[in-house]
Amino acid sequence: MATSRAEKVMEFLTCVICQELYTDPCTLRCDHTFCRKCVTANIHTKPDAVQSKTIPCAFCRQDTKVPHPSWPVEEWAGQIKPSIIIQGLIDVVKTGSASCCSVCEKLGETTPGASWCSECQVSLCERCVKMHVASPSSHDHEICDISGEVKVKRRRKVICREHKDEVIKLVCKDCPKAVCQTCCVVYHRKCESVVTIQSMLSNLKYHLRRHAKQLSKKIHRKVTIVKKTDEKISGIEKNKIAVENHIKSAVERAIANIKQKGKQLMNEVRVMTDKQTKQLKAEVKLEEIEIQMYRQDCEFIDQVLVSDCEMDLYDAYQAWESGAVELGDVRDTDTADTRRIDDIRFTPDTDNVQHILDDLQLGKIDVTYQDQVPCLTSPVLIDTMDGMMAGDEVEPGLLDITVLVVDGIQTVVVTDLNNKCVKSFYTRNKLTCHRTLPLVSSPFVVTQLKEKQVMVAVPESRQIVTVEVTPDLVLLSTITTSKRYVSLAVLSPSSLAAGTTNCVDILDMAGHVLRSVTTHNNERLFTYPDYMCVNNKGNILVSDRWKKSVTCVTSEGDVVWRYAPTGALIPYGISTTPTGDILLAGSSKVTRLTETGDYVTDHQDIDCDPQGLYVDRHDTLYVCGGGQTREFNFM
Description:
CATH architecture of the largest domain: 6 Propeller
Strand content: 25-35%
Helix content: 25-40%
Structural class: alpha+beta
Largest sheet: 4 strands, antiparallel
Distance between the termini: 55 Å
Strand order of the largest sheet: 13-38-37-36
CATH class of the largest domain: Mainly Beta
Number of strands: 38
Oligomer: single chain
Radius of gyration: 32 Å
Shape: flat
Number of domains: 3
CATH superfamily of the largest domain: TolB, C-terminal domain
């Protein structure tokens, strides 16, 4: 019986193409699973599939669309989602079969395994463990005791498809792509940011957990919408009965010939009511579809987090980063009539009863439509932090803010003008922590330089300081400049933009001025460029409180566009959203612009006078002003 079960399990874990145990299994749209290399080989045998940019199933012949058909055919299978469950079963089978020492087994002996090396993926007896630890190449490997009832936690190793003897352990952030050591040397020599997947694990887990939390909030919101819509449908049915009774009363007071017109009115009510109900039921169906998809995304992320596999975490993170796990707006926008019925009433018209019967009107059906013009959701306050710390001599004056994720810990970094310091706020082990880094004079703007580093402008002492965030604050270096710079924005690893009175300078990382941006068409561009940021096209967005404008310029000094609002807006902090929109702080509100500088709306319910602001990749808005920082969610 046990043998039969084992054979069934092995049959389930065997690829139907190569008839061997799955290697890097991936699941197609039809839910059939194959080795990734077998999928690639099968594509090459189907010229029609290559022409149609699809991946055919070798079992049922159903096609799976390629997410990125412009990539080489050899990389199409790499875009298919991995089968985490099947890979986990394979790992369990392999672990369960590793009862003998792998080294001794190669020598023809059957020595029981006492330990497991997670790096080499082999079981070792007590003698071989000593040799393994003594070897210079394996002395630092993680050894796990399996002599008792201990479950071995295996980590899936993904082999590079080009370099078959190398494991993928690196990520090129510039491309972005997971690569092996040889790929890094051959294809990514000019890339500036290549890191190990291991170093990214904490941040990957943080972003995936936060994304799962966002999905849970969306599910809760969708469930609430469905509940309210169902209640409205019930109210519509009651309203329908009331309107029909009203019509019947009017008809009964008329002669027999008038009753026919009453029936016509009732039919009209039924048609409009059915239309209204159909519209709302269609919306309920769409909401339920979205809820299901979000739940599937949450379950997928939970499986990835439980597996603790480096590549699974990275793949899930990449899928989320590219937007593949988000459900798009599936509402039909091509219908001719997009108006939505809001209410149905019957208005009697008894004054016309005495008219000629053919022209008699008992009443009319009034239908009001709900406005379908889309509106931006107002920001929802999530948290408020007091900027006051022990040791502060005066009330804080928080000027600017940025947010980093350091080893999976969200860290808020602010500049305190009044207390001449940089401050960080974070939560560790469910405890709220904060740190202070005193400076020689008052800091102004803070901007992120690297994953764990920020740069701070200290104009009074003509300095730009670099601070490492661990998430504690450590002063790394100080640059002395020729001018008093109040604003900063990192353009590249080797250059940054710095704002001072009447100009914006492009500096190298030593503080030397490479060029200055001052005028355009003989007109002075800036007076007090107190805040700036860089958009997704590499252009500089400069907020000038004196000229009351936002100017978009290239690093060469060419003006792309300019936004000068009418009214009393005095612009301060500026940041961009993940979609490219621009958020501008000032005059007790946050103004939203498009990426081309067109006005969208004002968010008046910030309930503070914001100075600096920052938007992270989750559309979370952080603002600071006075002695507080506030966190808002744009759902």
